Hints:
348 residues, 18 strands, alpha+beta, four-stranded antiparallel sheet
Amino acid sequence: MNEMRVQNSSSCSVVSVARPIRRSRRGFTLIELLVAIAIIAVLIALLLPAVQSAREASRRAQCLNNLRQLGQAFHNYHSTYQQFPPSYVAVHKTILPTALGVAGKYDDANIHTYGEFLLPDLDQGNIYNNLNFQAPYFSPIDMTSIGLKNYTADNRQWVQSPIAVFQCPSAPRSTTSFDYTWTDLAMPVPCRYGATDYGPSNGVTRGSPLQTFSQHSAATILDGILSNNFPNNGLRDVTDGVSSTALMWEIAARPNVWIRGKLQPNAQTGGGGWTDILNAENWFGGTAPNGCAINCSNQAETGVYSFHTGGVNFLLCDGSARFLSENSSLLLFVNLVTYDDGEVIGDY
C-alpha cells in the first residue's frame, strides 16, 4: 500500500492516505464476442418454432371459437324459426338461372344469404337493421336492362362491413373488405364484401369424383344440411346424427386463390364474402385428378381449405367445432357433408 505523508504545521503528526491501485479492465475478445452471438442465434433458432407454434395454436383455437359462435347463432335462429336459415333466398322463372333459388311465377334478384340472417345472433343488429330486405344485398343496382328492377336501396355500404367472427386469424389477408364482380347473370354485378373464411355445407356436386365415395349412384344429388334445394331443413332432418353432420367448413383466404399452400398470382375466386351468393351456393366437387377436397384448393365449389397445419376446422350440427385431418379419407368427408344417407361415421 502506497502512503502519502502530510505534515501539520501545528503538530508533528503524520497522516497516511491510502491510494487505490489502478487495475486495467479487460473486455471481450473478438472470438468471445462471436461465440456469444452464435449462442444467442442458436437459442433464438430453437425458440422461434416454439413461439410460432404457440401463436398458431392460439389462432387455431380462436378459429374454433369463431365456428362455435356461428353454431350458437344457427341454433338461436333454429329456436326462433324451427329450422336453420336458408343458405340463400331468391325467386327465378326465366331470367335468373334455374339453379338460383326457388322456381316461381316471376324473377326477382332480391337475393339474401344466411350470413345476413345470422346477424342479430352475432351481435350485429345494427347492420341487420340497416339492411333493406326488399332489395338485394348488392343494391343499389339498375337491372332493368335484363328485365328486372331498378333497386335503389343502399345495401352495399353495410355488406362490406368486416365482422371478426367470420374471419380466421390464421388466414393471410391484406384487407377485410374487397371488391368482386359476380358474372353469373346476364349483366355483371359488382359488390364490395366483408370477408369470410367459412362456408356452408351445401352438398357434393353431382357427377363429381367425390360422389364415387358415396353408396349412391352418380345421378343422385348428395345434399348437405344447408343445401339450397331444401331451404327449410332443420335438426329434425338430420337423420345421420347431429354430431356426425357438418354445418359449416373453413374455406379460407378468398378471393385470392391458394392451391396446396401456394398463392396463385393474379387469380381470384368467388365465395369470400359473408353475404356473397357464391359463398351461400357452396357445393363440393373436389379438385383434379382424384377429387382431393381437404386443403387442396380454396377455389369456389372444390373443397375445404385452411392455413392450420395438417387439416381444417369445421362446425357440426350439434354446435360443436372440430378439427379434421387433411389425411382423412374422402369417404369420411362425404359422409360428414351428407345428412340423411344412412351412412355411419365412426371416430375421427
